[in-house]
C-alpha cells in the first residue's frame, strides 16, 4: 500500500515538474541530459564540461541545474516513474541503496575498469553507494561535518577553541562573539526547511543529545526529553546568536555569510572549507580553524554524506552516460580542477589519492586531516547513544523521510522564525512521525 501511494504522489509531482526528454538525437549526436544540484563544486564541473565534449566527439551535454530541494524532488519523480528525462542524475547515499533495491538504477560494477581505480574511494563512502556488493553510484565529493571558526576573532576575544568542543562550549563562544554593531553573528546554522537542509545539522545535534526519531519498535520519539532538549538548544542558539534570516538560511546562505565575515563560527559540511579558503569567494581566507563536530553525550557527532552520479535504469545512452560519469569522478578530473581553479576547489572526501597530491596537501593543510577524521568516525556507533531501526546519521534512511523530514523541518523553521513554540513544533512533528512508524509496525 505504501509503495502504491508513494508512486501516485511521485507521479503527481512529475506532472508538476514538467521535465524535458533526455538523450536527444540530432545529426547522429547524443545529447546527455544531466540533473545536477546547484553548488560551487558542480559549477566547476559544468565550467570544465567543454573539455569532455572536446575529447568525446558526438556527445554533447545538457545540464539541468537546480537548488537542492527542487533537484531532489525532480530527480526522484523522474527516476521512480521511469520517465527517462535524465541520462545521469546526481543523488546521495540516502537514495542509492533504496533505489538500487527498487531496480531504478543501473549497476555500475561492470563499468569499473582497473584504470578508473574504484578501490581508491574512501571505504565508507564507497560502501554507502553500494548495494549487495556492487556500486550503483560513484562519488563526486564526500563529506562529514565540522566546525569552522574565525581564529582572529577568537584571539581578539581571548578565547581558545578545543579540538573536540562540546555544544555547550559552542553556545558560550557564540554569546561572547555575537556583535550586532559589526554585523557579526556568533554562529551560522541552517534553518531553511528541507530534510537535506536544516535537518542535516540538526539531526547531528539530536543524535549527540541522545535523541532518535524512532525506537527499535518504530515508536516515534520526537516528543521525548532528549529530542526536546536538542530542539530547544538548536532553536535557541540560532535565534539568539545566529545569522539574520536564519529560518531561510541553508548551506549556500551560511557559506556566503561566513565567507563575507558575517559569522564567527559555522557548523556544516566539511566541503565548506574549500569555499572558505577560496579568494574568489571568501574574504576570510587563512583566518579559519577547523575542529570536529561538537558533541554532548556521544564521542563524535559528524555526519556521512556524498553527492554522487548515478544512471537511471531506463537511460538509453548507457555507454555515453558512463563516459561522462567516469570523467567527472576520476583522478584526472581532480587534477584538472586543481590546476584550473585552485586546489581549494578540488572535490574532497572521495579519493584517498587526492590527499597524496602535494599541491592539495599545501592548500588544504588547515582542514584535510579534520575532513578525513570526520568521515572515518561517522558511524552510528560513534554518533548515536541508543540503537535505531533505520540506517543514516543526518537522515532516516527510509523512503518516507523525504516527506516526513521536510514536514518536521518546516515546523522547526517556524520555531526559529518565532511563529510557533518548540513544543508546538514537536507535537505536530510527532504526529507526522507516528503515522510513519505505525506503517512499519504493521509490516513487522
From TrEMBL:
PROSITE patterns with a match to the protein in the record: PROKAR_LIPOPROTEIN (PS51257)
Signal peptide: 1-22
SUPFAM superfamilies associated with the record: Periplasmic binding protein-like II (SSF53850)
Record key words, sorted: Signal
Keyword Signal: yes
Gene3D superfamilies linked: Periplasmic binding protein-like II
Protein name (record): Sugar ABC transporter substrate-binding protein
Amino acid at each position: 500500500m505504501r509503495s502504491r501511494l508513494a508512486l501516485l504522489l511521485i507521479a503527481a509531482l512529475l506532472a508538476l515538474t514538467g521535465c524535458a526528454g533526455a538523450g536527444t538525437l540530432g545529426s547522429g549526436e547524443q545529447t546527455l541530459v544531466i540533473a545536477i544540484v546547484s553548488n560551487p563544486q558542480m559549477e566547476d564541473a559544468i565550467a570544465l564540461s567543454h573539455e569532455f565534449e572536446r575529447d568525446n566527439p558526438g556527445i554533447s551535454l545538457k545540464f539541468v541545474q537546480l537548488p537542492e530541494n527542487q533537484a531532489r524532488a525532480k530527480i526522484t519523480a523522474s527516476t521512480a516513474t521511469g520517465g527517462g528525462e535524465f541520462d545521469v542524475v546526481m543523488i546521495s547515499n540516502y537514495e542509492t541503496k533504496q533505489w538500487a533495491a527498487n531496480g531504478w538504477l543501473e549497476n555500475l560494477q561492470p563499468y569499473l575498469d582497473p584504470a578508473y581505480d574504484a578501490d581508491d574511494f574512501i571505504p565508507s563512502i564507497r560502501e554507502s553507494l553500494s548495494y549487495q556488493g556492487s556500486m550503483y553510484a560513484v562519488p563526486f565529493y564526500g563529506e562529514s561535518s565540522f566546525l569552522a571558526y574565525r581564529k582572529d576573532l577568537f584571539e581578539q576575544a581571548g578565547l581558545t577553541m578545543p579540538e573536540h568542543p562540546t555544544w555547550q562550549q559552542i553556545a558560550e563562544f557564540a554569546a561572547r562573539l555575537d556583535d550586532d554593531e559589526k554585523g557579526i553573528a556568533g554562529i551560522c546554522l541552517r534553518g531553511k526547511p528541507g530534510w537535506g537542509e536544516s535537518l542535516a545539522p540538526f539531526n547531528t545535534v539530536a543524535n549527540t543529545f541522545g535523541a532518535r526519531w524512532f525506537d527499535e519498535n518504530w515508536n516515534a520519539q520526537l516528543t521525548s526529553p532528549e529530542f526536546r532538549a536538542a530542539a530547544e538548544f538548536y532553536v535557541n542558539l540560532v535565534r539568539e546568536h545566529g545569522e539574520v534570516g536564519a529560518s531561510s538560511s541553508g548551506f549556500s546562505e551560511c557559506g556566503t555569510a561566513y565567507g563575507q565575515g558575517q559569522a564567527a563560527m559555522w557548523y556544516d559540511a566539511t566541503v565548506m572549507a574549500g569555499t572558505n579558503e577560496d579568494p574568489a569567494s571568501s574574504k576570510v581566507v587563512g583566518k579559519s580553524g577547523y575542529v570536529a563536530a561538537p558533541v554532548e553525550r556521544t564521542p563524535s557527532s559528524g555526519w556521512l554524506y556524498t553527492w554522487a552520479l548515478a544512471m537511471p535504469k531506463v537511460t538509453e545512452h548507457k555507454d555515453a552516460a558512463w563516459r561522462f560519469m567516469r570523467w567527472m569522478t576520476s583522478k584526472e578530473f581532480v587534477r584538472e580542477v586543481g590546476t584550473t581553479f585552485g586546489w581549494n576547489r578540488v572535490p574532497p572526501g572521495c579519493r584517498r589519492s587526492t590527499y597524496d597530491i602535494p599541491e592539495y596537501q599545501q592548500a588544504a593543510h588547515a582542514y584535510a586531516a579534520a575532513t578525513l577524521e570526520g568521515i572515518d568516525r561517522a558511524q552510528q556507533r560513534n554518533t548515536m547513544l541508543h540503537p535505531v531501526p533505520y540506517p543514516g546519521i543526518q537522515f532516516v534512511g527510509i523512503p518516507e523521510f523525504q516527506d516526513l523530514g521536510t514536514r518536521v523541518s518546516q515546523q522547526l523553521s517556524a520555531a526559529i522564525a518565532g511563529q510557533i513554540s518548540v513544543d508546538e513544533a514537536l507535537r505536530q512533528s510527532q504526529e507526522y512521525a507516528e503515522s510513519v512508524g505505525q506503517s512499519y509496525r504493521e509490516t513487522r
